[in-house]
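hey so u asked for the seq, here:
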Amino acid sequence: MATAMSRVGGRVLAAAVVLGLAAAACGDGDQEAAGRPCVAVGEDLEVAAAAEVAVTLDDYSITPGTIETAAGTVTFETRNVGSQDHELAFLPGGGEVPLLADGAPDEDALAAAGAFELEAYGPGQRCAATFALAPGDYTVFCVVRAPDGQTHLAKGMKGRLTVR
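ran it, structure tokens below
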């Protein structure tokens, strides 16, 4: 009986830890949770990826700033060489990232526009994200907040993706 209770208690604790990590990884833009772990995106799609794009995330830049790739399933192999957490978000259609009056991303407008992302992760890590991309232009950006309260986007951390 004690063993069964230990297993149940362990499962509850494990579920609480997973939920806590998931909540911490969600993009509220806070820099307070520096050093978040990589949460890879689209691992189930990697086998179908026809292209791989290397992207370097630094304090406050995305390299390359202009990316071109073929339509289809693409894996973005990112590397955070900066001193802060960074994310890689995509806005279909390109253009300006919708913001609220305080400079925070307008999550509702981004969702309505079909935006998607690789959640923020910590310095010194690599993280992969695989997406099925339709032809068109995309704005790529990071809206994590810097220690001074500004978003990385406000500091110039954005680029352009063209999918042919």
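The two ends are 61 Å apart (CA to CA). The CA atoms of residues 67 and 161 lie 5 Å apart.
lmk if thats what u needed
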